[in-house]
Amino acid sequence: MDIQEWEQRHTDAFYNVKGALPYLEGMFVAYNSNIDAIKHLTDKDLSKLIGLFNEAEIQARVETYPREIKEPLDFAARLLISMREGKAAEIPTYTSDIHEWLKENLGFDYARMGGQAGIISNLLASLGLNKVVAYIPWLSKEQAEYFVASDNLLHPKVEGEKVVLKPPKKAFKPGAESKVNWIFEYSRDLEITCGGSKFRVPRDNRLIISSRPKWLRLDMDREIYEHLDSLLPIDGAILSGYQMIKEQYEDGSTYRDYVCHSVKAIEKLKSLNPELRIHVELTSIQNRVIRKAILTEIIAKHVHSLGLDTVEVANALNVLGHEELSYSVIKKEENGITSLYHGAVQLLKDLSLERVHVHSLGFYICILAKGHPLTLKEHRDALLFSSTLAGAKALNGKIENLEEAEAGLEVPISSKGLEDLENFKLYCVGKKLCTPEEFEYGYLYGADHDAVLIPSKVVNQPKATVGIGDAISAGAFAAMLARMKQSQSRE
Ligand code: 8BR
Ligand code: GLC
Predict the structure, then answer these.
(1) In the structure, which protein residues have their CB atom closer than 6 angstroms to any atom of ligand 2?
(2) Which residues contact residue 181 at a Cβ distance below 8 angstroms, ignoring those fewer than 6 apart?
(3) Model's pTM, two decimal places?
(4) Which domains does the chain carry?
């Protein structure tokens, strides 16, 4: 594959999408936002941390693979696992003791907007969309401060009998508390020695300790649900945060109640605008019952588009009963591009989706159901635009306007990503899935689906990695919708 050609395609796509964005009337983004307390771990932090425990005990806890942080030892174990594999993970904690322990023993470097919906709303508003309506059921006064102050970013507020759209700083819920997550970012090549085991961190990534306070409910206020039409006009919705649903609540309600409300909200949005497209952004979901319910009851048949990373593809396949495929996605990691492709196709089919966008370090794959209104070139532009956003975000740690997004064009395409695609090309051409020429364009035409594959821009020493996946998925989805609206306006 010709790297120069792909660089040029990135540039052309960026300006094509930039020209299309004004055609979007509005985007709805819900549900999760929190404050991220970010700490970049240094060698010193790590030896201090390991020194706080008995190393043999850490290793023993690693073996038990804790899925919840109940005490500091669980944290040390999950951090080691994440660093050993270089894989992102998000682990819930239901006590505030860990928060206090982390503050005392590690501290953080800075705090910023966190949570997929929070990050995505800020990004889309910064890209200059006409209207972004964020909805965070637990918007506190402090949390509202983390939203960008921009006229195009609004939040619904119940006022008497009505629901009105206001800047988040004027729409918070008095008395609401804030949710703070801890983000531990680590860099490639850190060397770790613990309890007789020694390894080198394979890539930059992070571990998230996600606080799940008792009051947290993934739900829509009744009044807002009743007056959802006050949000219009909107062309699309990006929904996330479902991972917060619990199996059982103290008041006797269960995940079934929250799944049911979530589906109702989606169906109501669609009934208000039958053209509306819904994207769900997935993240790490430790609880397998919840993971399966989110996939098969909320996402399947109700939403159009799904965004996720490679680990999440494997995790989703696993609860959907495709253990072998799941294992081959995880085992071969980024080299498992062939398994990843088959896994993404499987998700498209099992969940009756229109679009599955998988982002990996160095390349993205988007599987499309037949009959999608856009051309593969237009879908490719949407992916390339999101790769430029990822480059900009990794380079500068933020994107505050379209000019800052454009800086991503300076980031080079990953040569490892190109190499992975070259390997996949051999497979595809061998299996007659496409001609070598088609592959050069990044297009695959299947019997029951199409696909677009692009090499992506990767920053060698990223400022941070948290939130890049959100920028990729939201950027591509918004770009796709904008192109759809643009072509409708020409009809
Ligand atoms: P998640 O947050 O959903 O795991 O997504 C992270 C995504 O960020 C990866 O899929 C990868 O594409 C992208 N990314 C990472 Br991690 N590091 C990056 C870097 N240095 N430059 C560009 N993109 C990066
Ligand atoms: C999840 C985490 C949040 C983080 C976000 C980044 O939503 O809970 O802390 O900011 O992912 O993608």
Answers:
(1) 32, 34, 36, 90, 114-116, 119, 181, 208, 210, 283, 466-467, 469-470
(2) 34, 35, 36, 37, 114, 115, 208, 209, 210, 211
(3) 0.96
(4) 3-32+115-176+216-490 (3.40.1190.20), 37-112+177-211 (3.30.1110.20)
